[in-house]
Amino acid sequence: MPYALDNMTIEQVNDAIARAREYADSKGVPLTLERLAATLGVTRETLSEYVKEYSSTHNEGAEALKRAAAECTASVMEHGMVRGNSPIMPIFYLKNNAGYRDRVEQETTHRVTFTGMDNLQD
After folding, report:
1. Residue 98 DSSP SS3
2. pLDDT tens digits along 75-107
3. With 0-12 CB in 10 A as exposed, 13-18 as middle and 19+ as buried, what is 26?
4. Alpha helices in the chain (DSSP H)
5. Calpha distance 91→100 (Å, rounded)
6. What is the rounded distance in angstroms from the CA atom of residue 98 to the CA atom of residue 11?
7. 42-50 contacts: CB < 8 A, separation 24 or more?
8. What is the pTM of this model?
């Protein structure tokens, strides 16, 4: 599947990553996949698909974007832990963009009931 990102040089990719970082720093917000994608001129979905598809190749641009995507996850998590007023947005972001899920622990209790006469001798 051809991507618009395929035509970008490593310099263009690195420049876009740097501009996304600068924007986040200037606004005091975490670096996000959405900001990175907007800086690259693509959608978040396109960026995510590109990184996933090329994650096992040695494409310099894909490797740089993979590292930047990991940085986005760390940035959102750290921002939510130290600076965020509400944990809702980082939780939403991490669940929808970084593969985090609620862990459901379910305790199962079985009850056995015998009916009828007790045939056991006392």
Report:
1. coil
2. 887 777 676 566 777 777 778 777 778 887 777
3. exposed
4. 10-27, 33-40, 44-54, 60-82, 88-97
5. 8
6. 26
7. 42/3, 42/4, 42/5, 44/97, 46/3, 46/4, 46/5, 47/5, 48/97, 49/1, 49/3, 50/3, 50/5
8. 0.66
Tokens 């970082």, residue located: 21
Burial of 57 per CB tally in 10 Å (0-12, 13-18, 19+): exposed
How many angstroms from the chain centroid is the CA of residue 104? 19
**Residue 59 pLDDT > 60, yes or no?**
yes
Task: Give whole-number Cα distances, 16 to 105, 110, 119, in Å.
Answer: 42, 57, 80
* Two structure tokens written together for 5: 């990102």
Long-range contacts of 35-40 (CB under 8 A, 24+ apart): 36/65, 36/68, 36/69, 36/72, 40/5, 40/8, 40/13, 40/16
Give the number of residues written for the chain.
Answer: 122
Distance CA 67, CA 29 (A): 19
Q: Which residue has the tokens 């045939």?
A: 119
